[in-house]
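Researcher: I'm preparing a figure for a lab meeting and need a structural model of a single chain. I don't have an experimental structure, so a prediction will have to do for now. The sequence is pasted below. Please return the structure as tokens so I can convert it later.
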Amino acid sequence: MQLTRALASPLTLLVLACAGGGDDSAASASATATDPTTITSATVGATGTTGGASASGESSAGDGTGASDPSATSPTSSGPGATDGDDTTTTPANTTTTDPFDTGGETTYDSFGDTTTGDPLCKQQIDIVFSMDVSTSMYEVLQKLEDEILTVDAKLKTFDVLPDVHYGLVVFVDDTQISNMGGPYPDVNTLKQDFHTWWQFTQSNLQVDSDGLNYDFPENTIDALYSAAYLFAWRPMESTLRMVIHCTDDTFGDKGAVQSDLVVQHSYDETIQGLQDRQIRVFTFSDNDMTGGPGDNQDVSMGFFTPYMGKTPIPDATDGGAFNIGLVNKGQLSLSAAINESVEQSLCQEYIPL
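Model: Understood. Here is the structure written out token by token.
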């Protein structure tokens, strides 16, 4: 896969997350991506993205340097979230809580990490929040993350950066929940345990609060990303690479949409604005091969690879990237290698959203 960046060497990003298995014709992880999945521009956005300014927000609290006192809990971990004290956090109304609160060539990943990008004198901390669709069709990706998260962490610790990588987790179906009360996990093994809990949980087809069933195919990407932007205890943007790894295999509703009797609380515009204000890069693993929807035959690439309602896709708008999740499920794209290379290509690079 090949992903092209304006400020760093091109990288190919392809992903497939939750929907059923379509007839993806990509040959292997070493094949150059076709136009629908090739990421271009300084933000690693999808080909076909309409240019122009990024979407403007309706409202976004805080100045993007931290989170206040988020209090939602994870399946296996708890504890107060750290805060740098600079953000004013707004809790999404639909968030479940327990307390108030390029080389220009092909990329095979065989030599991943052999080169370094950015300013050699630059030192950054790394904060990564995993935003995971935990609907039934997502269990394979969750299981792969469980299997590969130690590989991700080991590779990140070889980079010439500050040593303490912080991880967070947001899970969603039609409702959302931020784990560990919005604080970073104490260690990567605890995060791995939660991935295990959630891929098992998806077998039941419940919402994340276990108080309702998921019976339609759109899932709540927007409130999940809003939660990641506003509720995680991000360290200061001046010294931190802030990244969300967002995984879903279906489309989403905008503010006011009703999905499985639950209402989407935030808009596409205000969510992107919050991500931009906090200089958070979103790298999505999403569907780009017509295998979405109830019949596994719908195009659900809007907002990820292609414009949403004429607006810039989320990866473009946040200086991130997009991968076809189907290739991950087929074993044609390494999840851990894609994540690690996304981090490497972003380290010490100027944040330039579209």
